[in-house]
Design brief:
Elements: E1 12-18, E2 24-30, H1 32-41, E3 45-48, E4 53-56, E5 65-72, E6 79-85, E7 101-104, E8 107-110, H2 118-121
Parallel strand pairs: 1-6
Antiparallel strand pairs: 1-2, 3-4, 5-6, 7-8
EC number: 3.5.4.19
Subunit structure: Homodimer.
Domain Phosphoribosyl-AMP cyclohydrolase: 26-100
């Protein structure tokens, strides 16, 4: 079984969680090629909607995601990856998770640690 890419217009959403803590690290999208690369390499690959191309998570930063489990939802139109986040940061802005902001008493605050300076990593 695999995701129903046709049903989703070629791209399926992918929720990525840390395998140990179950913290949600990010949401991305896969096309069929990204799916196949993920299965073949054991590391997360996605499709960038903004760049319109395949990308290997951590290919530039070294913060790769080692896939430990893959799950499909009941409709086969959403993927859940449980990963070991190498290097500690999932977010391209340098944070542990892409969900690094929370609202607290009407104000947005940073709620996750920054792991690296993106200006240094993505020169």
């Amino acid at each position: 079984m695999k995701p129903d890419f046709e049903k989703c217009g070629g791209l399926v959403p992918v929720v990525v969680q840390d395998v140990a803590s179950l913290e949600v690290l990010m949401l991305a999208y896969m096309n069929e090629e990204a799916w196949e690369q993920t299965l073949a390499t054991g590391e997360a690959h996605f499709y960038s909607r903004s760049r319109k191309k395949l990308w290997h998570k951590g290919g530039t930063s070294g913060h790769v995601q080692k896939v430990r489990s893959i799950r499909l939802d009941c409709d086969a139109d959403t993927v859940l990856l449980l990963v070991e986040q190498i290097g500690g940061a999932a977010c391209h802005e340098g944070y542990r998770t892409c969900f690094f902001r929370s609202i607290d008493e009407g104000e947005w605050k940073i709620c996750a640690p920054i792991i690296f300076d993106p200006k240094e990593v993505y020169k």
